[in-house]
Amino acid sequence: MNTRKYIIILIAAFSFAAHVSAQCSAENTAFNAGEELTYNLFFNWKFVWVNAGSATMKVSQTRWEGKPGYKAYLITRTSPRLDRFFLMRDTIQCIVTEDLTPRYYKKGANEGGHYYVDEAWYSYPGGKTHLRQRFQNRNGVVTEKTYDSSKCIYDMMSLLLRARSFDVDNMTKGEKIRVPLTSGDKVEDITLIYRGRDNFKMKSTGVTYRCLVFSFVEYPKGKEKEVITFYVTDDENHIPVRLDLFLRFGVAKAYINKSKGLRH
């Protein structure tokens, strides 16, 4: 499992469960340009919780091929304390149309002193999805590939923006959804499970959130293995407020720190 990829997915892909098809458009009901969310990241290190860093996501207005749309940024940074063990400086961006159709994606990552770039361009000839990928690995080697599908293909960020407008009332507890995701020089299906509703109290503020609970899972050797459990507000904003990651060396958590520019 690529842990850093899932750290981004956990913030960017929290409640998407639409039945994907080549019709990739959807009404945006959850966010406006100008929204900004920040998170504190913590790792469990030898029975002690340490501040691992922060993540910030911003949404702004833009244009793509002359048409209006949204540009979203997600920036993650490890803390100076953790930099001594593992440096991470990731910047992820995407562009979608006003009806949330993916058009462009880019991730530039400096992880552990190694830099790589992941890009994807989307087009929709004949009502199908055409994806062009360009991946520069840590050694500077560039790989380019294309994919054609009758389904929608998403990236980490466009999945987030689509998810923000999903209506969970159309789901049943335990429902599983597979979503094609572009990553590096390949497209992989991810599995999302809806766990139902629960309340979560933020220790730092004492605020209790009414939440929807979801999990990303893997199936090594055919057995279900939970990767992330995340809690998102059960309101029109659908903001992730708590995220639990189950890693090889322990557990990591992300908690929302502050938000501004919310639509609702």
| Mass-distribution shape | globular
The proportion of residues forming helix, as a percent range, comes to under 10%
Radius of gyration, in angstroms, nearest whole number: 18 Å
Structural class of the helix and strand makeup? mainly beta
Mean pLDDT: 84
User: Which percent band covers the strand fraction?
Assistant: over 45%
Main sheet summary: 14 strands, antiparallel
Number of separate helices: 3
The neighbouring-strand order within the major sheet is 8-7-6-5-4-3-2-1-14-13-12-11-10-9
Beta strands, count: 14
Note the run of SSEs as H and E. Answer: HEEEHEEEEEHEEEEEE
**Straight-line N-to-C gap:** 35 Å
Explained architecture:
With 264 residues, this protein is mainly beta. Helices cover 8% and strands 56% of the residues. The chain has three helices and 14 strands. The chain has helices at 3-12, 80-83, 156-163, and strands spanning 36-45, 48-64, 67-78, 88-97, 102-111, 114-123, 129-136, 142-149, 176-183, 186-201, 208-218, 225-233, 240-247, 250-260. The protein has a 14-stranded antiparallel beta sheet. Helix 1 packs parallel to helix 3 (156-163). It starts with a helix and ends with a strand.
